[in-house]
Amino acid sequence: MATNPLLLTVMALVHTYYGRLPDDRADLYGQCVDLLLWRWEDRKAGRAAKEIEPGLLERLGEPRVRRQDVEAAMNELAYRAHAAGGQGQGPADIPRSMLVEVLEPVVGLKRLEVFEQYARERSGLLLERGEAHGKPVYAFPHRTFQEYLAAGHLAAASEVGERACELAAQGDHWREVIRLATERLARQGERERPLSMAQALCLAQTAAGTPNWGAAILAGEVLLALGEATAVRTAGGRQVWRSSQERLVALVEGGHLSVRERARAGNVLGALSDIRDLDALVEVPAGEFWLGEGREAHKLALPAFRIGKYPVTNAQFARFLDADGYETRRYWTEDGWAWRQGTYDSQAGDWLKDWLANRPAERRDRPFYWDDGELSTPSRPVVGVSWFEAVAYGRWLTEVWRAEGRLGASEEFRLPTEAEWEKAARGGLEILDAATGKPIPNPEPQREYPWSSKWDEDLCNTTEGGIGTTTPVGIYSGGASPYGCLDMAGNVWEWTASLYGKYPYPLDSSREAPNAPGSRVLRGGSWSSFQRLARCASRRSAPPAHFNDNNGFRVVLGPSLSQSS
Questions:
Q1: CA–CA dist 234, 252 (Å, integer)
Q2: Residues 6+ apart with CB under 8 A from 300
Q3: Is residue 441 exposed (0-12), middle (13-18) or buried (19+ Cβ within 10 Å)?
C-alpha cells in the first residue's frame, strides 16, 4: 500500500495518533481515511491544541450535515468511480458532475465548494487531476482508498450477496472491493451478511448457466476474510464453508479457468483446508516398462506398488512436524540424524559446506522455506527438504499407518526408486483402461512426458508456463500420467531412494542402501526448469543434504527394500 509519500506520511501519522498500526487491513485503511477526512488538520503539522484549525464539519457550518452522511456519500462516490473506471489499475477519474450528484444532496450546493477545497487542499483525500469541459476532474490519492470506500457502499447494500454476484460477473477489478466489504462487515460483528455473500458467490452461474468459477474463488476468499472461527459457528456457516471447499476442488481438478486462476483457487482451497485425499495412492501393476531413453533405454520388470497421486504437500508435512518427527531418532538414517544434529557437515565438500552454512543445526527442525508466506501455502508441495528429511517422513508415515492397521507386514512408505518413479510417470508396456480397469497395451510406452510425447506448457509447471514459483498440487489434471499421478512433470524435483549411477539399472536394491555415500537421484523437473528436464527419463543428482526451493518428494507404498535399515 505505501508506495507514495502521502501514504507513508498517513501511515506514520496513524501510528502516531493511535499508537500502533492495526494488523487488520480494513482497520488500517479505515484509520487512514478517518485521519485524512476528519483528523488531518490537528495532526499533519503537529500543532498544539490551541492552533488546531477547524475540521470539515466546522467549515461546512451546517449542523444538519452529519458525519455518517458525509462518509456514506464518500463511499458512494468511490463506488461509482470504481464502476466507471472498469479494469483500470489506478484510481479512477471523478468528474465534478459525479461529485455534485453524490455530495450536493448531503452538504448542499452552496457548501459543496467548501467541501471540495477542504478535501483537495486540506485533507488530500481527493486530488485534482486536471479538467474536462472546463470543470475539475478529481481522483482518490491511491486505488486502495477508492476500493476501501467503495467496499463501504457495498457493505451497506440490502441484498449484499446478490450485489456481490453482479459485481463479480463484471470483472476481477471488484475482487478487492468485495473482500474489503467482508472485512468491514466482520469488523462490525456481522456474520450472516458475509456468509450470504459467500454462499451466493459459491453458487453463482454464468449467463450460459455454467458455474461462475471466478466467483467460486472469490467465495472462498470471502470466507477467509470472515475467518473460520466466525464462519463455522452455525450449521449454516459450516455448510457454506463445505460447499466452497467442494466447488474449489471441482475447479482445481476439473481444468477450469487459466492455470494462474486455478493456482489462486488451489491456494484458497489450502487455506480453507483442502478436503481432497492428499494421501491418495495410485496402483502401479507389476510388469515391464521402458527405463531411460535413446541408447540407454532398456526394459525392466517391477513388482506392483502404490505411489502418491500428488507430491507431499505442506499440509501433510505439517503432521510430521506436529508429531515431533525432527526430534525422533528412529525416523532418521544414521547420516540423516548426524545432519539433523549438525555433525554431518564436516564430511561435506567445500561447496556443500558453504551451502549448509545457510542452514545451521538450529534451522534443521523444519523445512528451510517453512516460514515463507508463499512457498508454505498448505496445498503446495513442501520444498526446502533434504533427502534425509524425505526419508524420515516416509518412516514416520509407515509407523502411523501400521499403528492404524493399514499396512501389511512387508509394506512400508518410502521414497520411490528411480525405476518406480519412471514407471509411474511413463506407464508400463501395459496400462489399465480407464473405462474397464483391464490391462491394455500402452499406446506410448516410451512417451517423453507423462501425458504423451507432445509437449504442452499448459499441462505442467515449468519455466515455459511463466508461473515462477510452486503451484498447488493437482491443478494440471490434463498432465496426469497413465496411472493418474499428477505433477510428475514440473512443479518440484522429486527425491528418489536411488543413488545416481550409470545404466543399466540394477534390480538388487544396491543403489537404495540408506546409508551409502553418494548423491541421490531427483526426477521430474520443476517450476524453475525448462521443458527438456520435465521428460519422464530426465534425471539429476544432488547430495542427500541438499535442499532448495524447487526440491520436494512423493512417497511409495510398496515392499520393503532388501537393504533398508
A1: 27
A2: 288, 289, 291, 419, 423, 505, 507
A3: exposed
Report the amino acid identity of residue 491. Answer: N
Question: Across-strand partners of 95?
Answer: 137
SS3 457: helix
What is the sign, positive or negative, of the torsion defined by CA atoms of 110, 115, 118, 124? negative
C-alpha cell at 223: 470466507
Determine the straight-line distance between the first and last CA of the chain, rounded to whole angstroms.
54
Label residue 13 by pLDDT band (50, 70, 90): low
Q: For the ranges 168-172, 199-203, 240-244, 526-530, which has the lowest average pLDDT?
A: 168-172
H/E/C letters for each residue in 201-252?
HHCCECCCCCECHHHHHHHHHHHHHHCHHHHCCCHHHHHHHHHHHHHHHHHH
- What is the C-alpha to C-alpha distance for residues 241 and 272, in angstroms, rounded to an integer? 8
What is the enclosing helix (H) or strand (E) of 424? Answer: helix 418-426
3-state secondary structure of 523: strand
Is pLDDT of 52 > 50? no
Single out the residue of 373, 307, 382, 309 nearest to residue 550, CA to CA. Answer: 382
Residues 541-550 have a mean pLDDT of: 96
288 Ramachandran zone, left/alpha/beta (phi>0; psi -120 to 50): beta
Neighbours of 159 (CB within 10 A): 12
Other beta carbons less than 10 A from residue 17's beta carbon:
13
Cβ neighbours around 263 below 10 Å, total: 23
Can you say how many angstroms the Cα of residue 302 is from the centroid of all Cα atoms in its chain?
37
What pLDDT shows up at residue 562?
61
